[in-house]
Amino acid sequence: MSDKGALRSRLLRGELTHNVIVLSGWMGRVPAPLMVLLCLIPAPFTAQLFAAWPTVAAVLAVATVTDALLLWSLPRLGISFGPVQGPLVVFTLGRHGLALVLALAFALVTIPQVWEVGSLVALQLALTACSLWGHLVEPFAVRVVRVRAPILEPSPIGSPEPPRAARIVLLTDLHVERLTLRERRVLRLVDDLAPDLVLFGGDLLNLSYVQDARALADARVFMETLLARHELRVVLGNPTVELRHVVRPFWESLGVKPLDATSEPLVLGGAQLRLYGLPAGRSPTKDAHRLAALLKDHPPSPKEATVLLYHLPDLADRTPGIDLYLAGHTHGGQIRLPLMGPIFTASGVARRLAKGTHQLTTTLLHTSRGLGMEGAGAPRMRFLCPPEVTLVELVERV
Fold this sequence. Notes:
Purple Acid Phosphatase, chain A, domain 2, 5-stranded mixed β-sheet, 6-stranded mixed β-sheet, 11 helices, alpha/beta
């Protein structure tokens, strides 16, 4: 396949955020030292808007070099494994954009030059601190999110048996580049939670490493460890990330058959469930029709609680007959800002549904923030959106 054809095959119609991330990966073709030099060019032009422009130019240049050194060091320290080029452009645009806002404010109010420079330095230091937190700390601060789902049929009145309950752990968007402290912490947390069942919601590998042998081997180590201790069910994620000719043989070699528009009756902790699994296609609209056909062909019994595992939350308004809908894909936005929330969600659902638990008429939706991070030229950072292991506690309806 030509480079142009390979690029086209990784794009999704109507998925602007995903497509921008894919295209950003092509910045990696520019040699990193040259990209650093290109990102230094705007410094003297932005600085012209400030009275103390030589000092301001130096501050902005130092900030750019600091960003480049951080991004260069991340794979060498085994923290994350993205390129320098794309994130450096993003950070440079952000720093200069906020510097322009500051310059506009100074144009309206006359202040001493030392305050002007001090304000800019404080701003750039704050941005550097956020970057360090987002790259070095938050991606490894895995949180357990507990969801209480009252979807089980109540025990008969007067029954001597204890109330029915079951524990399900949801993992999604692992996006393995290499095994890091994050993946090892996830395995420890799952063991501590002692679930009756583990569900994996798709996107095993990072977009930049979908055919990388080392990433695939490390993903195998993770899943073999998980399978040795827990029962697992799986659906496939985005077709541009979950390349079917890569992930299907991967799961088959582990003895796992991903749920492929199929349903499975389960008994967990005395509770009767029917698990519906739907792999993500290129069109959520078409997937909604597939779900409707699946529910028609495999209706649950009156005693079965229904659980849907589907990578995206985009079927939120098309799940009649589903009691619990578990999804991921959005990463919760991955980078969230105070008051604003997620910058991007890569989903067609309302922004409020991009993470967390929501009651949608008769369906309880939980959208996980996921575990990994976007690939290609996207920054390998999380901010105000830590990775998530979800514990879903199924209990009886009141």
